[in-house]
Write a structure and sequence with these properties.
The structure is a single chain. With 207 residues, the protein is mostly helical. It contains 13 helices and no strands. The protein has a domain at 4-113. 68% of the residues lie in helices and 0% in strands. The longest helix is centred in the first third of the chain and has 14 residues, at 20-33. The chain is elongated, with a radius of gyration of 18 Å. 34% of the residues are buried. The model has no long low-confidence stretch (mean pLDDT 89).
Amino acid sequence: MISDLDEFLNNQSPKVLLGKRRSLKFLRLAYAKGCIGLMVKPTSDLLAHDAGFSFNLGCADPELRRIASWVLTNSKNRRKLARLIPALWKRHGYEDLKMAGILLSNLSKDDLGEDPWMAFIHLLQRQESLDMILDISEEIIRGGSPVPNDTWIVEMSKQSKLWHQTAVIFCSLSKRNSTTCKQMIELAPTGGELFERIRIRALAEQN
């Protein structure tokens, strides 16, 4: 039995991806079609509010990946698709950020105009959900882009508190034993429960 999302995507023209506004409108409609039902909406609204998302429609990961696959398959201009990523981040819905991560992991350096990791950290202008940062970082790794080297991570950590905490996440994912990274992790600003768990795990892996 064909799902509402599949039926929706099958009836779309690639022309919906020609402009930024049309693309954003299309994606918001697609997310809604990918929701499992109205019963999740109160929980989704609460999650959106608590995590600082502009919305959280409740579209699950498999459906988001089907939407992303359709977008990547039907896009005629990958550079234009790359320019959609900052617009998704600015709108800041939960599904938007997840979609941005999927696109970052599937577009090439030439498409993005820079390394995916650099493109990612340039999106981080305010305090973000560490869960989302971790999720997108893992997505980029799955896409075939290894975590940057320790020197790059440490230099990045000096730019802001948010980038410093993000650098700790990157180090925790690199699984490398590094005195330089250990010092940077120890000096990172104090964070919430999730961040401190990541810090403890990362320090343990450095020993």
